[in-house]
Specification:
Helix content is 60%, strand content 2%. It folds into three domains: 80 residues, no CATH class; 103 residues, no CATH class; 103 residues, no CATH class. With 306 residues, the chain is mainly α.
């Protein structure tokens, strides 16, 4: 019944797979109810994914097999094997070391920031408290914790007190005009029960697809470098559907980086000439632009044979 109710909901469809599996969304609202137990795997995650796979097969929003396997595997590991036996004081350290948030299933530090210097690894959503703590853990280039990781530590270890510290530091920055206004999702008490204003489905699927395309293209290029033409020809024939997307994927990646740079500008610059609320609206529009730009990603993944 739940799947029937949310199946045609645009907000539900734009949520990334891991958020869908770990929360019940109340249709027509921004409210989500967290669910991340072993029972949730059997009675929500597995049937919901299989329902979506069967009902959307052959449509524009069809769930490809790689996406299904990845979502089921991550849900299984997190809900049945992870993170309950791990002491709460150790868990965030493990998550940072593995660069994986056990609850959301996503990287702690986004792939788009991985190649930046430590001090620059933060987004418009990173709290001022996280940035402040990060400064004490190293230099501009190398730090024990970058701002996003420091943010994760504060939130994971100190719970509600940490969330309040983040909110308080952000409120000061908003009041001084140094930071965009906070979203409902960033509020300390209600945020956990609200979905994000803009879903990440397309972006998550794109980066997963890019990882596969880059791996295949890198392997093919290595064969060409060592002048193993026979192996290269055979590999190209076998994986041509994926290799054909190399240029398109990297062009989209370049466009995404430009949009992310604009988001960082509105989230971080003090001289935008806009109020914190206006800056937040600009960020939301840019986030929507990213998702719309990637609207064809599901079809691309199908064409590539994933």
């Amino acid at each position: 019944m739940y799947c029937f109710l949310v199946g045609d909901d645009d907000d539900y469809n734009q949520m990334d797979d891991q958020t869908k599996l770990r929360n019940f969304m109340i249709p027509g609202t921004k409210i989500i109810l967290p669910m991340n137990t072993s029972a949730a795997f059997f009675f929500k995650a597995a049937p919901e994914l299989l329902y979506n796979k069967v009902m959307k097969e052959g449509t524009n929003n069809a769930v490809d097999m790689r996406r299904l396997k990845t979502a089921l595997k991550e849900a299984f590991i997190d809900m049945l094997l992870g993170p309950t036996p791990v002491p709460s004081a150790i868990k965030p350290v493990m998550e940072i070391g593995l660069n994986r948030d056990f609850f959301t299933g996503r990287p702690v530090v986004p792939e788009s920031l991985a190649k930046l210097e430590a001090a620059e690894r933060y987004t418009a959503a990173t709290s001022e408290a996280g940035k402040f703590l990060s400064k004490f853990t190293g230099t501009q280039e190398k730090r024990l914790l970058d701002p996003i990781e420091a943010d994760h530590i504060i939130r994971s270890i100190f719970g509600t007190a940490g969330a309040m510290a983040q909110w308080f530091s952000n409120s000061i920055a908003v009041a001084s005009g140094e930071r965009a206004a906070m979203t409902d999702k960033q509020q300390p008490f209600t945020g956990s029960f609200l979905r994000a204003d803009v879903g990440r489905r397309n972006e998550d699927l794109f980066y997963d697809f890019k990882k596969e395309v880059d791996m295949r293209y890198g392997t093919y290029s290595k064969m060409l470098e060592r002048e193993d033409d026979k192996a290269a020809d055979a590999y190209e024939e076998k994986h041509s559907d994926i290799l054909d997307f190399y240029k398109d994927v990297n062009k989209m990646d370049s466009d995404l980086k430009e949009i992310n740079a604009e988001i960082r500008y509105y989230g971080e610059s003090k001289d935008t000439g806009l109020t914190p609320v206006q800056r937040r609206e600009e960020i939301k529009l840019l986030q929507l632009e990213k998702q719309e730009m990637l609207d064809d990603i599901i079809e691309m993944r199908k064409e590539a044979g994933l």
